[in-house]
Each structure stands twice: as C-alpha cells, then as structure tokens.
Amino acid sequence: MTKLLQLQQINISATCSDIEDIIKNTMLQLKRDGAVLGLSGGLDSAVTAALTVRSLGAEKVHFLNLPEKDSKPIHKEHAKFMAKHLGVKLKTKSITPILKAAKTYRLLPIHLIPFRKLRGKIVEYAKARFFDNKSDKILEARLKPKANSWIAKGNAYAVTKHRMRMVMIYQYADRHNLMVVGAANKTELLTGTFCKWGVDHCADVMPIIHIYRSQLEEVAKYLEIPEVIQNKPPDPDVLPGIPDKEELVGETTVVDQILFSLENNNDLSEFYNRYGKDAVDRIVSLVELSKHMRESPYRL
C-alpha cells in the first residue's frame, strides 16, 4: 500500500498558501468586495472560514448560520465560538418559516411531533425497521429511491434544507456584492454525501474540494481550529435520528484510502482482504451512483 501513503503527505503550509491565493484571486476576478460563507459549526466550514479570513482579512468576510427546527443547538454554539475565534460577526437566521411555507416538514409525519429528540427516536425506529438498523444502507437507498417511498420523501425533506440555505446565502451575497465560498471536501464529492444544488454544492469558489476529509483534519490542526470543533464527527444535521457521516459512509481514513486507490486505478484486492469485499464494494457503488451529481448539465 505504498502509494496510499501519498494521501497523507501533502505539504500543509504550501496547500494553505495556495488555497488563500485561490480565494483572493477569485474575489478579484469576480470584482467582489468580500466573501460570505455558511458557518455550520462543523470542521469543514471552520477550516474554510479560517482560510478565507487568512486570505482576505476579517473585515472582508461575512458568516451566516442558518438553523431550522431540526438543527442541534450545539452546532449553532460552535458556529458562534468559531466566528468569535476568527474575529468575524456571525449573522444567524432561522430558515424554519421558509421550510414551513414550502411544506418541507409535511413530507414526513414526524412534523407532528413537537420535540426534536422525540422526532429523532421515531427516525431511529424507522431505520431499525426498514434498514435492519444499518446506517450504511441509507446512502445507497437515497441515491436510488422508489418514487414516493419514505426514503424518497426523507431525501427531499433533508436536501431541501441545504437548497434553501444556498438561496439565502446567495441572496445575501448579491445584496452585499460578495462571493460565496463553499466548504465541501473531496470525500463528500466522490461519495455523493452532499446535496446537489445545495449550500454544499453551489458556490463561486470551493477552496477545499481537492482535499480528502482525513487530510482536512491535519489542516485543521495546522490552522489551530478549536479542539472542540476538531474533535466533532461530521454531522449532516438535516434529519433527526440520522447519525454522523462516518457511521453512514465508514471510517474516514479507510474510505479516503479506497477513494484514492479508485482514482489512481489501483488494485483493490488488498482492501478486500483487510476490510471485506462488501465494505469496499459499497464505496465503489456510492462513487458510481453519485456520478451524475458531479457532472455539469451544460453540454455544448
């Protein structure tokens, strides 16, 4: 597995410097006065926020936090903490009224349950009932659902939130002549664990899209991101009862090595021996099923 070791051998200082140049040059090319990004309280947006501030200066950067009624309060607190750490004011606006107007919450009957934790228990029960309590089956089902099935409705329930966030961030950006900075990483891109046309897909610049999640954790240490955020699992936070992305996809370091090997057309037999054929083939399946999410609809 000697080639796989290259995954961890990025020059972090040079990588950060290159990203900062990309952010600044993009802003100048677009003739914007600054940048705005959604600060979720997670690691990806924290690293992107830090690099954007290093590139442009805190005075040119705007942060938005857009929670809704299913959002875990801890993420909002971590977003506030990160914004304060970087010296940037955080603007918070609930998108619950917009989602209600779009009848998003009516897609699932859990909207009738007033408490978020109880809604999560109901989703956990459904997961156990329909997926034998195996979270790793949810992503594949989401990428090939039957029309009007509960998995299709649940997917619509979740992704609409990120699409509404994208609309709100771009509205803010257009009003203030800012560019939108996205925070998706390479692991999300290749496995389809993002929302097509959502806040984690649409941006004027995606500065960490070439970096695997496991590499991003090393970048976070270099940037001295607060440990409380560094140590958080990657939480999609769009549907109660749905666990963090590592439980959905698999252990980040393993997934990234498989993805790296796929990109470089390496033999996967060693992975089959170490992690089991089903686990490896599942990552291959996610890459194939999500291919359309990475393709542009514009063909000349």
Automatic annotation (TrEMBL):
Matches recorded under CDD domains: NAD_synthase (cd00553)
SUPFAM superfamilies: Adenine nucleotide alpha hydrolases-like
Keyword presence, Oxidoreductase: no
Gene3D superfamilies assigned: HUPs (3.40.50.620)
Coiled coil: none
UniProt keyword annotations, A-Z: ATP-binding, Ligase, NAD, Nucleotide-binding
Biological process terms in GO annotation: NAD+ biosynthetic process
Start and end residues of each NAD/GMP synthase domain: 17-103, 141-297
Pathway: Cofactor biosynthesis; NAD(+) biosynthesis
Any Pfam family: NAD_synthase
Signal peptide: none
One term under GO cellular component: cytoplasm
GO terms, molecular function: ATP binding; glutaminase activity; NAD+ synthase (glutamine-hydrolyzing) activity
InterPro entries per UniProt: NAD/GMP_synthase, NAD_synthase, Rossmann-like_a/b/a_fold
Protein name: NAD/GMP synthase domain-containing protein
